[in-house]
Design brief:
alpha/beta, Rossmann fold, Dehydroquinate synthase-like, alpha domain, 13 helices, 44% helix, globular, binds nicotinamide-adenine-dinucleotide, binds glycine
Length: 355
């Protein structure tokens, strides 16, 4: 049985989580948008695995489909691919009553959502996330974006989907590294809000437990975006581990995947917070042990403190001379803390294991 989480932003929509949802996605989408033309946007890996299934389901439900496939990877999440998608839609005469279908991970979801937000000043889109990371985080809440040369996600829009259908069967074709990326973002919800959820990740997750964990993560995200759709307060909590994480990603030339960088960033901010007396003793050790269970990194010793610090200055979360950090005070409880930007270096230094 699929579980359904209701998201109450300005636009109200459901996130459905369950095995086999791609098979019936056509009928489910039709119930929300009616039949129309559907442009499926996907990447070169996902297209080989799931494009046929989704095309068939949509066409059986009465949609006319087209597909646009771009090269898989973060390197494609840029203005050039966005422009190619927009030109494709225009050349094929897509109109305001048609829909875009994002089939893939966070890269596909972010760029398709952004394309939907600007094409003809906004067309409807649906999310069919196929990575764990996209299911628990990027497909829900309406943040869409592309990367600029200066940094990640620097151009984008808040734009909510019509529906999110997360088919957990698709996780079976993800490699271990990609699954681990998703576990980093999933464990994050446990650290932020929910000790019981955190502890669930300490079990061997069978299909049923994994589906439950995914649904609980999404329920946390739905609550947060309901309270703060436009990221002005509470939603910033979801950035736990991201300030240092984004710096690691950028220093690596995006060779370090997002989830791995966030894991290292989360462990480092926890370690620094504990050393500064801002977090309960033992918190960072618990986080570190959990991340290691999923073969995630918990430190970053290949970049100098200064390099990470200067790279993090380009972070979106910086506001003039200050930056809002997420401090994990204990498992299941985190707070926002505004710091002078210059103090970030102290967190980076104390966050490293040897210091
Ligand atoms: P991704 O979309 O690049 O997918 C990772 C890899 O897995 C790709 O090679 C992809 O082709 C492949 N893949 C996808 N589904 C597969 C499947 N079922 N089987 C086999 N291979 C599959 O990356 P991601 O980790 O899903 O997402 C990372 C992106 O998400 C980053 O750009 C990040 O900035 C963004 N993000 C956005 C938000 C948000 O709120 N919008 C939140 C977190 C992350
Ligand atoms: N991924 C962080 C957010 O949606 O706010």
């Amino acid at each position: 049985m699929a579980s359904v989480i209701h998201v109450e932003t300005n636009k109200k929509y459901d996130v459905e989580v369950g095995a086999g949802l791609l098979l019936t996605c056509g009928d489910k989408i039709k119930a929300i948008t009616g039949t129309c033309r559907a442009a499926i946007i996907t990447d070169s890996n996902v297209s080989k695995l799931y494009l046929n299934k989704v095309e068939k389901s949509l066409e059986q439900a009465g949609f006319n489909t087209d597909s646009f496939v771009f090269k898989a990877g973060e390197g494609s999440k840029n203005i050039e691919t966005l422009s190619d998608i927009l030109e494709f839609l225009a050349e094929n005469n897509y109109t305001r009553t048609d829909i875009l279908v994002a089939l893939g991970g966070g890269v596909v979801g972010d760029i398709t959502g952004f394309a939907a937000s600007v094409y003809l000043r906004g067309v409807r889109f649906v999310q069919l996330p196929t990575t764990l990371l996209a299911m628990v985080d990027s497909s829900v809440g309406g943040k869409t974006a592309v990367d600029l040369k200066a940094g990640k996600n620097l151009a984008g829009a808040f734009y909510q989907p019509e529906v999110v259908l997360a088919d957990t069967e698709t996780l079976k074709t993800l490699n271990r590294q990609e699954l681990a990326n998703g576990f980093a973002e999933s464990i994050k919800y446990g650290v932020l809000f929910d000790k019981k959820l955190f502890d669930l990740f300490d079990c061997d997750l069978d299909d049923e437990k994994l589906e439950r964990a995914i649904s609980e993560c999404i329920a946390h995200k739905a609550r947060v975006v309901k309270n703060d759709e436009f990221d002005l307060g509470e939603r910033k909590l979801l950035n736990l581990g991201h300030t240092i994480g984004h710096a690691i990603e950028k220093c690596s030339g995006y060779a370090t995947p997002h989830g791995h960088a966030v894991a290292a960033g989360m462990a480092m901010i926890a370690r620094a917070s504990e050393k500064m007396g801002l977090a309960e003793a033992g918190t960072s050790e618990k986080i570190e042990k959990m991340l290691l269970r999923y073969n995630l990194p918990v430190d970053c010793d290949i970049y100098e403190d200064k390099e990470l610090y200067f790279t993090s200055l380009g972070d979106k979360k910086r506001e003039g001379g200050s930056i809002t950090l997420v401090i994990p005070e204990k498992i299941g409880g985190s707070v926002l803390r505004k710091e002078a930007v210059a103090d970030l270096e102290k967190y980076i230094t104390l966050g490293k294991k040897g210091n």
